[in-house]
Amino acid sequence: MQALPIFFNIINRHCVVIGGGDVAARKVTMLLKAHAAVTLYSPEICAELREMADAGQIRYVQTFFEESQLKNACLVIAATDDVAVNVAVSVAAKAQNIPVNVVDAPDLCTFTMGSIIDRSPVVIAISSEGNAPVLARYIRTKIETMLPAAYGRIAAIAGEFREQVKVKFATTQLRRRFWEGVLQGPMVERVLSGQEQAARELLQSILNDADATANKGEVFLVGGGPGDPDLLTFRALRLMQQCDVCVYDKLVSPEVMELVRRDAELIYVGKSRDQHTMPQEEINELLAKLALAGKRVLRLKGGDPFIFGRGGEEIETLMQHGVPFQVVPGITAANGVSSYAGIPLTHRDYAQACLFITGHLKDGTLDLDWVAMSRPHQTVVIYMGLVGLKEICEKLIEHGVPATMPVAVVQQGTTQRQKVVTATLADLAAKVALAEMKPPCLTIVGEVVRLREKLNWFNV
Ligand SMILES: C[S@@+](CC[C@H](N)C(=O)[O-])C[C@H]1O[C@@H](n2cnc3c(N)ncnc32)[C@H](O)[C@@H]1O
After folding, report:
1. CATH code, 186
2. Which pLDDT band, with edges at 50, 70 and 90, does 276 fall under?
3. Distance from the CA of 432 to the center of ligand 1, in angstroms?
4. Is 249 a catalytic residue?
C-alpha cells in the first residue's frame, strides 16, 4: 500500500481551493458535500462557482495565489491549469504540513481522493494508487450496481439504534454479532422495499427479544482451497468474514488470508514437514477452548479439511466438548491443481479411475499399496510426496508401471507462483531436483499428463 485510506472530518473546517475552472468546481462540490467551509482564490471563476459564491456556499476571493492564503487551512486543493502555480501551492502546503491535492499531478499531492461511491452515511472510496484510474472507475461502477441506494438508509437506521444496542450488549463482540444477525435478516428487506418505519419497529422488537448474555462460541472448519482465492466457496467467504479468531495453517495462501475479517485475531499453527509448530492434539484442544470461551473460531485449512487435512480429528474433539461446528468443503489440491495445470484427472481414452494417495513418510518409510497404485487406466495423485519422490517412482516401475509413464509435479498450483515439471517415471526425480521444486507440490502419475501439452491454459 502506497497510501493510507482515511476518512477525514472537515465539517465547518477551513479548506482552501486554488483555481476557478470546472475542475475546481467539481472539487468544491465534493468539499461542500462533506460540509467544509470553503475559501476559493482565483483571479476569475466559472459560472458554477459564481453561483456557489453568490449563494453564500463558498467564500470567494478574486486574486492570484499567495502562500499566505494557506494559513490555518486544514486541507488545500490546487486545480489551476498553470503548472507553476500548482507546484507553488504544493510546495507551500507541504512546508506548512497541510494536506494538499493537486489535480492530475500525483507527484505534487500528499493525498488523493479516489473514486467515490456515496451512500451516505456509507461512503466507499476506491484507489488504484494512480496506476489505473480507469480500473478504479470500472470497480466503482461494479460496486454501484451491487449496492442499492437504500444501503445509506440502512446505515442511518442502524445509527439511530446504536446507543440502545450499546447499552444492551456489554461487549463489542456481542454487539457485532447482533448487527450481523440483523443485517442478514428481514429488516434489510423492509428498508430495501421502502418500509422504513416497519424496519425500525422490527429492529426494536429484535433488540427487545435479544438475549444480552448469550455468548455461544462455535467452530467453522473451512476449506480454503489450493491457493487462488477465487476458488473459495461463498459460504467459506461469508464465515471468514464473521469469525472472531482464525486458526490457520501454512498451506493457506496469503491471498486467501487477505479475505479473513480484518479485526479477527490470527493464530498460526502452521505445519511444515517434520516441523509441527503445534501438535495436532493441541490444535484440537485449542479450537475447543476458544469456542468454549464464546469465540467464533474459523479453522482455516488449505484445500479440503477432510482430504489429508485431519479435519475429522478436530471435529471429534469438538464433539467431545459439546462445541457446535460446521464444515465447509474446499477444493482439494488434486482438483484445483490438476485443473490449473491442464491435466484432466479422468479421460475416456486414458483413465477411468483416480486415486488420491499420501506420500508422506511415516517413520521414514513409505508404506503404500503399490499394487493398487500400479494398475493401468487410472490416474494416481500423490499429496505430500516430494521427499519420497525418487522412491515412489522406483517402486511404481518395480510393480510394473512403464518407466515411460508420464508424470507431472506441480508446485503451488493455482497461484501466480505455480510451477510445473513434466517428465517420465524414469527421469522425474532428477528433473524435479534440477528445477529446485519446493513444497507444497502435488504429483500426478498417468497417461492423462500427456494432455497438458494440448490443454495447458494457465500460464503465469
Ligand atoms: C497436508 S496435505 C493437505 C491437503 C489439503 N487438505 C487439500 O485438500 O488439498 C498438504 C499437501 O497438499 C498438496 N497441496 C496443497 N495445496 C497445493 C498446491 N497449491 N499446489 C500443490 N500441492 C498442493 C501438497 O502435496 C501438500 O504437501
Report:
1. 1.10.8
2. low
3. 17
4. yes
